[in-house]
Amino acid sequence: MSRSNKLLYTARAGSEQVLTPRTPRSRAGRAEEALFDADGDENIQFANYYEMDGVHQRAPLLASSASTTFPQRRLAGTSKAKLFKADFDGVGVDWDLIARRLPLLAGLASVLFLAILVIMSVEKPETLHTYLHGSPSPTSHANTSHTMAILSYENYTSFPLTPLEYRQECYKFLAGMKGPMGTYWHIPPGGPMDVEHKEDSRVCKSTITYMLDGYVGLAADLALMAQVAGLAREVINSRTALFHFGHHFMDEFEDPYARELRRAKPIFQRSATSFAHTIRPNAVNAELIQAARREIGAPYLAAHVRHGDRKTEGWEFHGGYVPLGDYVEAVSDTWERVERMDLEDATEPVVWIASDDPDARDDLVKRLTDPDGVNVTRVYSLATSDNEELRDIASPEPYVQPEFNAIPPEDRIRLTRGAVVDLALVSGLWSWDDQTIQTGQKARLEGVVCTISSNFCKLSAVGLGWERAFGFLPGDSDKQAMAMDDNRKRWVELDLKGAVTPVWRAFELF
């Protein structure tokens, strides 16, 4: 072993004393002589360094009341109170330091409070809204703080006015308003626009009047009616809806704590409630709907092909129509997904085709029932039904609104019945719980393929329901999901294909 490796240290008071660890700077360490089992100038200098008085600690690092070396000392005549005060003063409470740290503590508390608010806004936004704004009880009272701006009929010769004339009056009324518009239910200083009313006990004080003006199609009017049914106080038609369902309506009735598609849930639910309780088919139309569902007799998909005066909104097929090949592919893909989720015992796809264009309908039927066996599908439609009453109400030509308005009234009624039946089959609306079919199964809609440019497509999502249409979890338990789930969705839109947010709209403004 080399010389440098033989350096050993011992600290002892006697030859047989047990070694006690000491720091090099302790007084006790100085009292005990350090003996080195090594020689050499280097080691001597190292030892002399620790013999210097200037480098030794003058007090022990640790003191123990049980130690004989460092006994606890107490001056005679010192009271316990003085000792307590001395001990407290020895703690050294730095009030200046505490005062300097108070802003930091307040900031940390604020950050923690804001973090709790953020978590609540994501997990329980309704609860947070209740804490911040309370839960106002619904009230109804007459507002007498403003006078009504009465609509004058001096320049008109007939009543009621046409929708275009009512819209012109709305423009004139807004042109005279000054200042910001305020909230949705804001009453302008000059009072709201109204007409003279005659007292009639047969009419409720709070009602809704929707004018079916004939300027738009059936589904467009129904989509607007589904929203105005919840207002019950205005006179609205497709031409004046722009003044009622603009940005202020969205700000008032969308979910302010959600994002993307989930913001539209309250408006979606309003529409669903209207179709469930207010907008219902009459007995004749209800029987036709049941006849079509009895003929299907199984879970099915729906494909809605809208041609005529409705072009696509997206740039991929701008100015034209979505190719029928896209429908075939979407039907096949959707059926496979639905079959994995719900239809384990299904044997073959079942599809209801609704279209205003007979040529497009026949072409799609041929594509879905290809004789080579690749696409073996049971296809149903009004035109191919075994029921003569259903065949009679099928659309004979592409739907163009001005041309439809020009045909005789009895033909319009007949074709409108066909549109009502198609809407029910495409959307699943008006499915009566006690409706059964001969096979013991229900003709339940499992999914729909359509284009957002058609109002049938908008309403079909309402019939499917919020969770089933957009793929949200049952019971809408996942509050984190804001967008449509492409793997679980049953509402398949082929025009914009999710390129525009939100992917679904409740109605169309004209």
CA radius of gyration is 42 Å
Main sheet: strands, sense, barrel: 5 strands, parallel
- The top level CATH class name of the largest domain: Alpha Beta
**pLDDT averaged residue by residue:** 78
- How many helices? The count is 17
Give the SSE order as H and E letters.
EHEHHHHEHEEHEHHHEHEHEHHHEHHE
Transmembrane segments: 102-122
Keywords: Membrane, Transmembrane, Transmembrane helix
Short description:
This protein is of the alpha/beta class and 510 residues long. Helices cover 39% and strands 8% of the residues.
Structure description:
There is one protein chain. The chain is of the alpha/beta class. The protein folds into three domains: 1-60, no CATH class; 149-253, no CATH class; 281-493, Rossmann fold, CATH 3.40.50. The chain has 17 helices and eleven strands. Strand 7 (300-305), helix 11 and strand 8 (350-355) form a beta-alpha-beta unit. Helix 4 (95-123) packs across helix 5 (125-133), helix 7 crosses helix 9 and helix 11 (324-341) packs across helix 12 (358-368). The protein starts with 8 loop residues before the first strand and ends in a 17-residue tail after the last strand. Residues 1-15, 25-39, 136-145 and 434-440 have low confidence and may be disordered.
